[in-house]
UniProtKB/TrEMBL annotation:
Family matches, as PANTHER family: L-CYSTINE TRANSPORT SYSTEM PERMEASE PROTEIN TCYL, MEMBRANE COMPONENT OF AMINO ACID ABC TRANSPORTER
Gene3D superfamilies: MetI-like, Periplasmic binding protein-like II
UniProt family annotation: Belongs to the binding-protein-dependent transport system permease family. HisMQ subfamily.
Major subcellular site: membrane
Descriptive protein name: ABC transporter permease subunit
Membrane topology, as annotated: Multi-pass membrane protein
Species the sequence originates in: Acetobacter conturbans
Domain annotation ABC transmembrane type-1: ranges: 295-487
Chain ranges passing through the membrane: 295-318, 330-354, 469-487
UniProt KW Ligase keyword: no
Length: 507
């Protein structure tokens, strides 16, 4: 009897295991649910505090609940808005959830599962008269976030205006939502386009400064959706999970938690938004652990990238100064390509396009730090090659011939005769190039590297205290740059560069 019961139990277990396995979506790999998000859209997704790793919001709670339902570990990957869908396509994340609207254009390439209703709003400074339609913005400047569907909306409206012989809406695009709102606050644009959920959340920060002048009824801007790669089974599982969350009232609870329910429609009623520069906030940001870590990461990336670039550039410079050969032609093309292509494009190509050709770069070992290091090293080496090549050419070639006549080996000649003299010539432009690279590291914020600028933007998106946080970042950048400028002067003094005026005076 017992044996039969055990056999029955084993049979039922073996039959149930495959069914359970099928209930997990294919993007659930290694027991993890990886979600890509841009943490600059409160209350959907944002950094809730000084710690840049403490991501919170409506979307984050939804992701964690999905992971709980599927018995997975939630992994939140933060990045620039424009990098989310390329990362989804390259399988760096299983879903994109970041306050992204459901759009038919996006659904041509990805599946979308709606989870929250929303409305598009047009916001302007307080006192601006309300308008009846988007066409009333003809001739006015409007700001939107780069990569969003608002751009297509304005372009569509401009076609209608052109057919009526009216001036077009002047579109300005910015990389994050907080920068979009800032343009209205400083008066650079007449209005901005956003979603009502952010407006509800921002009321305490911006109370009295801006107001809603239009709420268009547009069917393409009514739902936030979770995006995933095309897979009917995965989409059905995600739809079932979202339906379950709705039936349990969890989504409604989250709406109340994050202040985006209908009860929050009294937008911008409070008048407590600070307007003056806050010294305590500036000092707090300047001395915060987040800014210190961001500055340290910026410096580490710059130093490692430049050292790697120097190591790459020395043999390349020697080869380019040598006799013509097929390898020299290849290296000349290498220098031309990486000097000619924008640094940001190279960074995005390595991070987003490389995994499409080589799946190994989709793995977790290929981090934003590593991608930035590789990209900046290759890019910087192309410039360093020209510095080193010019420095080597500036050394009198007769010294090489004389050393060879004395029977010295070529390696010894370069080590003791050529390189020391070339170093004196190359060092000042090399340090200048490093200072430029130090500032170029800010581009890495687009692939979610938490360097100094990325930390600043995250904190600005959370607090809307632009001046204080930008000023703190400026102080950090200037401190690093001035240190290396001082170092450059000390090195120049130490080596006593050939200066005709100084030589004449000393003579």
């Amino acid at each position: 009897m017992r044996i039969g019961a055990v056999a029955t139990a084993v049979t039922l277990y073996s039959l149930s295991c495959p069914a359970q396995a099928e209930e997990l979506p294919s993007f659930a790999t290694d027991g993890q649910l990886t979600a890509c998000t841009n943490p600059t859209l409160p209350p959907m997704t944002f950094v809730n505090g000084a710690d840049t790793s403490a991501v919170a919001g409506f979307d984050i709670d939804v992701t964690r609940e999905l992971a709980r339902m599927w018995h997975l570990k939630p992994v939140i990957t933060t990045m620039d808005f424009e990098g989310m869908f390329p990362s989804l396509a390259s399988e760096r994340c299983g879903i994109v959830i970041s306050g992204v609207l459901r759009q038919t254009g996006r659904e041509k390439n990805y599946d979308a599962v709606p989870y929250l209703d929303s409305s598009i709003v047009v916001i302007a400074k307080s006192g601006t008269p309300k308008i009846a339609s988007l066409s009333d913005l003809a001739g006015q400047s409007v700001a939107v976030e780069t990569g969003t569907s608002y751009e297509a909306l304005i372009e569509k409206e401009n076609k209608v205006l052109a057919s009526q012989g009216r001036p077009a809406i002047q579109l300005q695009m910015y990389p994050s939502e907080d920068q979009v709102i800032q343009q209205v606050l400083i008066g650079r644009v007449h209005a901005l386009i956003s979603q009502d959920v952010e407006v509800f959340f921002r009321q305490k920060q911006l109370g009295g400064k801006v107001s809603i002048i239009l709420t268009p009824d547009n069917p393409d801007f009514r739902e936030f959706a979770i995006y995933l790669r095309k897979n009917a089974h995965d989409k059905a599982l995600l739809q079932a999970a979202i339906s379950d969350m709705k039936q349990r009232g969890l989504l409604e609870q989250l709406s109340h938690k994050w202040g985006i329910s209908d009860q929050e429609a009294q937008v911008f009623s409070e008048q407590n938004a600070p307007s003056a520069f806050s010294v305590p906030v500036f000092v707090s940001a300047l001395t915060s652990a987040a800014f210190l870590k961001g500055a340290a990461l910026t410096l580490i990336v710059a130093v490692l990238s430049h050292l790697t670039a120097i190591l790459i550039s020395i043999p390349v410079a020697l080869k380019l100064n040598g006799p013509r050969s097929p390898l020299q032609m290849f290296l000349t093309a290498y220098v031309g390509v990486f000097r000619g292509a924008p640094t940001l494009l190279q960074l995005l190509f390595i991070w987003n396009a490389l995994p499409q050709f080589f799946p190994i770069f989709r793995e977790s070992w290929f981090t934003p730090f590593l991608a930035t290091w590789i990209s900046l090293s290759i890019n910087e080496s192309a410039y360093q090659v020209e510095i080193n090549r010019a420095a080597l050419r500036a050394v009198d070639s007769g010294q090489l011939l004389a050393a060879e006549a004395l029977g010295m080996k070529k390696s010894v000649i370069y080590r003791h005769v050529i390189f020391p003299q070339a170093l004196r010539i190359a060092l000042p432009p090399t340090i200048n190039d490093f200072i430029s690279l130090l500032k170029t590291t800010s581009l890495a914020s687009v692939i979610s590297l938490q360097e100094l600028l990325a930390v600043t933007q995250i904190q600005v998106a959370r607090t809307f205290q632009f001046t204080e946080y930008y000023s703190a970042a400026l102080v950090w950048y200037l401190a690093m740059v001035f240190f290396f400028l001082y170092l450059q002067k000390r090195i120049e003094r130490r080596f006593s560069w050939a200066d005709r005026n100084e030589a004449t005076a000393n003579g």
